[in-house]
Amino acid sequence: MPRKETHFHQQIDELKIMILQMAAYVERAVDSATRALLDRNAELAERVIEGDAKINQMENDIDEFSLELLVREQPMARDLRFITGCRRAVIDLERAGDEAVNIAEKTIYLSKLSETPHSPMLEELVATAKDMLRLSIEALQEENVEKASDVCRMDYKADDLNVRILKKTMDDMVTEVTGVRRAVNTILAARSLERIGDLSTNLAETTIFVVKGVSVKHNCQRF
Question: What pLDDT shows up at residue 4?
Answer without folding.
Answer: 58
